[in-house]
Amino acid sequence: MDQFGPLGGIEQTNLMSETTTRVFAELESLEHVGRCLERVKQSRGFLQMLKLNEDQLLGNFAQNVVQLRQDELLDLGEPAGIIRSAIMLSHLRSLETHLVERLQPDVLGDLNECYQLPLDAAGNERIKAAVRNKAGKDLEVLLRAWTNMMRTHFPDQQEDTTYNAHRAKDMPVWDLLSYEEHPDDPDFGYLAYMDEESLKYQTDIFAGIVDGVHLCSMGPAFAIVREAAESLSNDEADLGEDN
Question: How far out from the chain centre does Cα 149 lie?
């Protein structure tokens, strides 16, 4: 899949975090996520082949252009579900990326024990306080960049030769995480170097959360931030249903 630029002739945009939350609330299992991903890939192939430039609902495109059968359309969810009734072709790349990420093994399960040393009580409380009142979209960006960092440097329960157990006790997470590219668009730059105007803003959001956390405890720190983000997403989803 092309990572950037239009698909076919349609410019791509990112799904909102609340939309992503609804997608995975409606897909009933990982097996359903996998089937949905196959239909999304199928639709992307048609879009790239036909080079259409008019945006439309993914559900309509899958039914009328790809001509999926009714049972195949259900892989994308119910007719009134978020994927078929609200997500556009302009969201196709973002949707596929989120589906692929959901099917990957839990990044913490792949993390070596030398990076999973427990935080002390003060460290736990400081991170919980830091994520409080943060926007869901900011936590999502941080978690996706952090996940990419761990998958790149610390895969398959391996101890990294550069960031080994000894060095991990002294190296702040932010020293490595700050050089991760923005997960939605590399043109945004690194997390620490967005641009002169937003540098302080981004540093306050991201570095402030992981301040004082060393690589040896990045697993527990990541788990706290992820739990906070999931709780916030669930609250936003419940609020959307009430409205």
Answer: 13
| Residue 96 backbone dihedrals phi, psi, to 5 degrees | -60, -40
Q: For residue 13, report the phi and psi dihedrals to the nearest 5 degrees.
A: -130, 165
pLDDT tens digits, one per residue of 121-132: 999 999 988 888
Are 15 and 136 in contact by the 8 Å Cβ rule? The answer is no
Mean pLDDT throughout 193-202? 51
